[in-house]
Please model this.
Amino acid sequence: MAIKELHLNLEDHRHGVEVRGRRELLSRAVEGNWATIFKGRGMEFTGFRSYTFSDDASLIDWKATLRAKQTLIREYEEFKNFNVVFLLDVSNSMLFSTGKKFKAEFGAELVYSLSQAAFDGGDAIGLGMFSDHLVSHIQPSFGSGIKSQFELMLSNKEYYGGEKNFKKSLLEMDSTLRERSIIVLVSDFLGMEKDWEKYISMLSHRHMVVGIMIRDTRDRELPRGGGQFFLKDPNTSETMYVDASDFAKQYKELTLENEEYIKRVFKKVRSGCLLMLNEDDDPRLIKQFFASLLVK
Model:
């Protein structure tokens, strides 16, 4: 499903004080928490050395000690900087809205703001956009030109639309990453293939995978007051005639169940998934989400 134009507010100077202020507020809310959660979150094993009396005895590796016949401790190096890769779903299901912005447009603006916070914190940032395959990607970089690359790629309407192949896209993205990364996966998680969860688990063995689930109000509930509607699957084009008054309760219950299941998938890999509506612009949602990751 092609789109004629995108409505994105990426560059501050093009869109006035109101947009600039909102994006800067989001970036400030994210930046401090980003550093707290991800900087020093893990330690990289660098090797063994002989134990001395000033060392912490809990660092002794007894298996290595027995093999070497001398007391050895493990040495670690704290992570200082990260590759932060944003993976944005631009498939047909993301080209939907009952408000002002498609889910994909909202996601693009969110990715841009979060990427600037990561970049300002000293991390290399990368980007991937996917539908039924990895449409385009940018390798993580610290370079000064990375921001303009993000803008050009996110603003290219030719990259938006297409059926969704989540598993294939994740595998293609993983194949492009040479180093361990933080992957921020932005999607509505609708129209997912069977066993998609296994690919999140597989990816999390090498990377940290964080989810942001973007939904529209209509994804969550049918119009109030009843009415008869044709519903169309954006991936298969299959249509269904429904009476909202007959299915509204069941629709809402199944949607909430689906959202909770997706959150559990990320919880199993010791991460998290934030649910946002494509009309949310409150930076406190992001701040609270990062705080919840911090205590895991």
Summary: Residues 13-23 have pLDDT under 50 and may be disordered.
